[in-house]
Amino acid sequence: MTLPELYFISGSPPCWSVMLALEVKGIPYRPRRLDNAKREQKSDEFLKINPRGQVPVLIDGGTTVCETLAVLSYLDAAYPAPPLFGFDPVETARIWQAICECDGNLRDTVGEISRPLFRGKGREFAAQITDAAAKVRDELALIETGLSAASWIAGDKLSAADLVTYPVVMQLFRAAAREQEAELNLSIQPAADHFPNIDAWCREIEKLPGYDKAYPPHWK
C-alpha cells in the first residue's frame, strides 16, 4: 500500500493544520519536510509538483492536492471519519464561517506581529506590531466569547475550524512570548491571564491523538 505523502515546512500554520487533520483521522502518511531556509519549496524538483512553490501539498496515489483548505476538504471526502466539516448544513456553515473569519481577520494580522518578532526586529517594527496587536486582541476577544459557550470553535465538536485556527493562535502566542526582547506590551501573553478560554481550548487540542507527531519538528 502506498501511503499519502505530505510536503510541508516545519512551523507553517497551514501545514500544521493538515498534519493535525491527518492525525485526527488516523491516516498514516509519509512526511516530506522542505527546508524553508534553503528555499527548497522553490526548487526545480518541487516546482514540478506545485508550480506555485507553496506548501502544503498532499499526494495520495495519483491525486495531488495543493492549498490547505483544498487538502482538508479532500481528506474529509476521501477519509470521512471523523468528519471535519460537520454532520448537517448548519454545522457545515458554522465551520466554514469560522474558517473564513480566521483567514480574513486573524491570519495576516498575526503575521504582522510574528514575522518581525521571529526575526529579532521587534523594535524596528514596534509601531506595526502594536497596531496589529490591537486588532488581534479584538479578534481573540470574539473567539474567547465563543469558547465561553462552546467547547470548540464552531460548536460542541472538534472540526476543521479548530484545526485551521489553532496553528495561527499558536504562532501568535509563540511570537508574543518574545515581546519583552522588543520592550513591547502586547497584552497577549500570558495567554491564561488574558484569554483563559482560548488557553483552555489550546490545552484540549494538545490532548488530541497524534498531536505530538504533528507538532512542528524544529520547535521540539
Topology:
Layout: E1 5-8, H1 13-24, E2 30-33, H2 44-47, E3 57-60, E4 63-66, H3 68-78, H4 89-105, H5 107-118, H6 126-149, H7 160-176, H8 191-194, H9 196-205, H10 211-214
Parallel strand pairs: 1-2
Antiparallel strand pairs: 1-3, 3-4
Helix pairs in contact: 1-3, 1-7, 4-7, 5-6, 5-7, 6-9
What is the string of SSEs from the N terminus onward? EHEHEEHHHHHHHH
Which range best describes the helical content: under 10%, 10-25%, 25-40%, 40-55%, 55-70% or over 70%? 40-55%
Give unreliable regions as ranges: none
Number of helices: 10
Cα end-to-end separation: 30 Å
- In this structure, how is the largest beta sheet organized? 4 strands, mixed
Broad structural category: alpha+beta
What is the 3D shape? globular
Radius of gyration: 18 Å
Mean pLDDT: 96
Placed side by side, the strands forming the largest sheet appear as 2-1-3-4
Total beta-strand segments: 4
Strand percentage: 5-15%
